[in-house]
Specification:
The protein is of the alpha/beta class and 142 residues long. Helix content is 43%, strand content 20%. It contains six helices and six strands; from the N terminus they run βαβααβαβαβαβ. The chain has a six-stranded parallel beta sheet. The longest helix is centred in the middle third of the chain and has 14 residues. The protein is globular and about 40 Å long.
Length: 142
């Protein structure tokens, strides 16, 4: 089993303080969308250097080849792409991951529960490394 921490609504300095306390227990550090927006893309390489035992996951959600290449060049080990994205977008992220010898997590957030098995099967067929069953805090009873 792997433990992942998502850095979303936290400052860069607060994230460092938190990670210093738990870094030995964390396998994957997620650079979430809000955290990436608060900081520039260099935060990926900075955290990769600070916490070399952990994989760095960059939440890109869409943008396929273009966004995943930016994240991988910045040092990400894994990118996320939304399962609701076009198949071409998912395939583009996977193609880029293979070129960089990295991985793709396909995230199911925002997809109706009854569609998750269908979209997860598509993502698996396209070559996704991970599929994340993810519900939003904004959606009660999801």
């Amino acid at each position: 089993m792997k433990l992942q921490i998502a850095l979303d609504d936290i400052t860069r300095e607060a994230a460092k303080v938190l990670l210093e306390k738990i870094q030995e227990d964390v396998d994957i550090i997620e650079i979430g969308t809000p955290f990436a927006y608060y900081n520039d893309i260099s935060v990926i390489q900075e955290f990769k250097n600070l916490y070399p035992k952990a994989k760095i996951l960059a939440e890109i959600l869409d943008g396929g080849e273009f966004m995943s290449a930016l994240a991988f060049r910045a040092g990400a080990d894994i990118v996320t792409v939304s399962v609701s994205a076009n198949n071409e977008t998912i395939a583009g992220a996977i193609k880029t991951a293979r070129a960089y010898e990295r991985e793709v997590l396909v995230d199911t957030m925002g997809v109706p529960l009854e569609r998750i098995p269908e979209r997860a099967a598509v993502a698996q067929a396209l070559g996704a490394d991970y599929i994340c069953a993810h519900t939003s805090l904004d959606v009660p009873d999801a």
